[in-house]
Each structure stands twice: as C-alpha cells, then as structure tokens.
Design goal:
The protein is mainly beta. Helix content is 5%, strand content 46%. A hairpin with a 4-residue loop joins β8 (89-100) and β9 (105-115).
Length: 365
C-alpha cells in the first residue's frame, strides 16, 4: 500500500504555491514511481530512505492557465448575472504508481481541486473548503467597493453544486441562487442599468450593503459591499491573487505622455543639393502612450485590494463610458507602474498610477 507522510489538506489549493507530496510503500523496497497527470507521465526516484517527493506547482500552473489569464466571460443577457468561469479552477487527477525491487506495483489515485491563486508569507487567506469568495481577505468578512454604472463582478468558489441564499441585511430581501462546482461569477453590474440584473432582485443602496451568503442556515461569508454613487472616471480591472477579478475607478483627469523614436535612419544622399530635399530617410516610427491617473482617496480595506494591482499578471483598461453594457472587446490589456507607499493606520490615502497602453501601429517601410 502507498502511504503518505505529506499531502495537501487545506482545499482548494493555490495553483501558484508549492503543493508537495511525500510518499512510499508500507512493505518492500521502493525502486521507482510514476505520476500520470492529464496524459503526462513523470518518473520519480526515491531518496536514501525510500521516500518519493513531488511538487505539483508547475504542473497545476500549466493546466489551470491555458487561457493565459485572459477574461473571456461575456454576459448572455442583461437579466442573467450568475456565470460559471471554468478558467479559474482545475480538478487535478494524479495516478501514482510505485514499483518495488521485486517488480510488484502499488497504485493510488488522488484528486485535488486547484484555484488560480497564490498565497504570501505575510498575508493570510480566508479558506473554506466548501464555498468562499475569491477576493483578498483574511477573515470570512470581506469589504469591497462597487462603482455604480460600471461593470463589476465577484468570484465565488464552490466545491460542489450548492444552493445559497444571498441576503441583504440592510433591506431584509434575499435571493436563492445555485452555484455550480468550480468558480462562479456574480455580475453585480454589467455596466448598463443597475436594475436589469442583480439589483432587480436584490437592490443595493448607496453606502455599505451587508450581504450574507447562507447555506442551510449557516453563513459561509459576509460581503460588505460599498456602493459608490455614479461618477466619471476610468475603470480598470485586474486579476487578483485570490483567483478572481478586482475593479477600481480612477479619477477622470490624467497627464498623458507620448513617446516615439525612429526605427532606422538610412542614407539618402544621392542627388545634388538643388535636386534633393534631404540626405536621409527613416524607415518608420515606434511609438507608445502612457497616462498618469490618481486613484482618489482610499480607506484601509480598499488599499489592501488595490495594492495587488501592481502584482497582477493581467490588467485591463475599460475603453467605454459609464452606463454602457460591457463586452470583453472593450477591455484593453495594459500595464501599470508606480510605487505605492502607505501607512498601517486606517486613514484615507491617494495614489498615482501610470497606465502604459499597447504600442501604436505605425506606417513603416
């Protein structure tokens, strides 16, 4: 029989952290082992004590990220607001075989759920093997800000099909929703009209709305959703470390920088001075644009969410106006830079963010 001295226990597992197993057999002398995952076979050999070691991190990161962090979930209609996003989770099945020196084999199959997340040494992560919100937070109470008139969604992981009641403590109203196995996304707003989708059945009021996610009378987690009044600005969204999407509305004013340089300068000095209009020619230009925005004042919870933007592998700039129904084609992939220094007090602070846009398409020789 195969016995494990170490294997993952806190489910679901973060795909971008170490997930290590150590194992051997309870009888005989182990010779070699294979682990088969998704048709790929990994050969492993024991250490001097006869124990095998394997880290699933690189394998899980490849299988869970076939879409390279892109967001491709489109809303089918204004009234439907709950969608499954299969790109945010992965069920890893590993067939583990050990062969001993006598030629006998032992086999076991392990199945582990992964989400597209990463954990850090200095920050805890709220963990619930049954159902949890995929946003930064160390407890079962989460604080998020939602800007009226702009797209916004939250991601919820469920270990199996579960029926939850979402209750607003502010109004006493509730809705019952079925969450499929894996990651489900609730589009609080599609950007078009607050009262066509989620808010048609569970209205949200300006200020903090306390939403409880309840199953069989037990509260799995509570979302303190601060609805900001409609205003102009620039929406960005990024893939956060918890494995979901985060949003923020930057202030509308910005400083723009346009940088360009010549690709190549070639000699064109082949005529007399009277018949020439120059002695060189460029082959074209490379150009790119950057803008500096202000975030507006943020409280402590908002800063904790926003600081992950600088670590994100995917950042989108929303190229549309408020109160327009979003489509994924309206989100342009950009890059952000900046230094975000903040104190540990719960005071309001504002940050400067530089957004670098895709390079310009230019005419070239």
């Amino acid at each position: 029989m195969i016995v494990f001295s170490e294997q993952p226990s806190k489910l679901p597992l973060p795909a971008y952290n170490n997930t290590i197993i150590k194992y051997t057999i309870d009888n005989g002398t182990p010779k070699s082992s294979t682990i088969t995952i998704g048709g790929y076979v990994f050969d492993i050999f024991p250490d001097a004590s006869g124990e095998f070691y394997f880290n699933f991190r690189e394998v899980a990161a490849v299988f869970i990220n076939t879409n390279l962090f892109a967001d491709t979930v489109e809303m089918e209609s204004a009234s439907k607001f709950l969608y499954q996003d299969p790109a945010l989770s992965y069920i890893l099945t590993a067939e583990i075989i050990i062969e001993d020196t006598a030629g006998a084999t032992q086999t076991v199959t392990k199945v582990w759920p992964f989400i597209k997340s990463v954990n850090q040494f200095d920050r805890g992560r709220y963990q619930d093997a049954n159902i949890m919100l995929l946003h930064p937070g160390e407890t079962s109470v989460f604080s998020l800000s939602y800007f009226e008139g702009w797209p916004f969604d939250i991601s919820v992981y469920a270990d199996q099909v579960r029926t939850l009641t979402i209750k607003s403590k502010r109004t006493g109203q509730s809705t019952i929703q079925t969450f499929r196995k894996g990651v489900n996304r609730i589009f609080i707003s599609n950007g078009e009209n607050d009262f066509l989708g989620f808010e048609n059945i569970l209205p949200l009021y300006t200020g903090v709305n306390e939403l409880e996610f309840i199953e069989n009378g037990n509260i799995h987690f509570t979302l303190l959703l601060d609805k900001k009044p409609a205003e102009c600005g620039q929406l960005i969204k990024w893939f956060n470390q918890a494995g979901g999407w985060s949003y923020w509305l930057l202030k509308p004013l910005y400083i723009q920088e346009l940088k360009s340089n010549s690709r190549e300068r070639i000699n064109a000095d082949f005529e007399t001075l009277d018949n020439s209009n120059g002695n060189f020619q460029i082959t074209g230009k490379d150009a790119e644009k950057g803008r500096e925005y202000l975030t507006g004042l943020m409280d402590h919870e908002e800063k904790n969410v926003f600081e992950e933007m600088s670590l994100s592998p995917k950042l989108y700039y929303y190229n549309s106006e408020a109160f327009q129904r979003f489509s994924t084609s309206k989100f342009i992939e950009v890059e952000a830079s900046g230094n975000y220094k903040s104190g540990n007090k719960a005071n309001l602070e504002e940050f400067k963010v530089r957004i670098d846009f895709p390079k310009f398409y230019t005419q070239k020789i």
